[in-house]
Amino acid sequence: MINNNLFLRYEFKYFMNSKISDEIFNQSLNFMNIDNYALKNHNNKYLVRSLYFDNDDYSNFFEKVDGIKIRKKFRLRCYDKDLQSNNPIFLEMKGRVHDRIIKKRVLIDKNDIKYFETLKNLEKLYEKYEKNALIKEFIYDVRKKNIKPKVKIDYSRRPLINKFGLYFRLTFDSDLVTSKTNYLFEEKDRSNFALQYKPGNSILEVKFERSIPAWFHRIIQSYNLNRRSISKFVLGVCNCKIRSETSD
Questions:
Q1: What digits encode the pLDDT tens for the residues 44-56?
Q2: What tens digit of pLDDT does each residue of 165-200 get?
Q3: Residues 203, 209, 214, 215, CA torsion sign
Q4: pTM score, whole prediction
Q5: How many Å apart are CA 245 and CA 248, to the nearest integer?
Q6: Helix 18-28 to helix 214-222 angle, to the nearest 10 degrees?
Q7: H-state helical runs in the chain
Q8: How far is CA 48 from the centre of its chain?
């Protein structure tokens, strides 16, 4: 049941409209393949859903806004709106150490989601995943830093992976919808109003271990793409009017 994953990489992000996003996606198909998981879904897209944690002072939010070079945050991540699906659910820790992104995750039993949503009976979570360092780190942050679920973010993702050579991945994310909630899967009597963020726009994420291929550098130059410091968590908090990037 315990399934840890560790990712170390660089990430560059770009805002663009859907027309340019489609053009870059189609041009990239000359060098890349559609991710196998996306191939199984309609229009080669799949849902990404994340429930982000922060404390009441929104320390993680402001660390990102202020550009702190060493930081981290926790989230629950899944790939479906239905709890009864067979898609995996992960606890993830995503952080930055200077210029590199680090991501750790552990596969979570769907019956354990209630512990993360309510933060009650965490000793049971500790016992069940007693050998897992990431679960221990999460429980520590709940108890010492008072993190709790704050914002849920859904979006559609079209991913491409390099055909040859070193790891290189592109993800085209659109239809970003945010809501203030404690729950990964809402019940009708506790659903929250969802807000769509800038319809018609996409976020392109460029993920690599060492370098960007020359052909994609040419795409960056031809479209005059400018890197942006983009966090979907920050966008979600701002979109839900919880905090703003100019808050004191």
A1: 999 999 999 999 9
A2: 889 999 999 999 999 999 999 765 455 677 888 888
A3: negative
A4: 0.92
A5: 9
A6: 160
A7: 18-28, 36-39, 59-65, 113-118, 122-128, 133-145, 214-222, 232-239
A8: 8
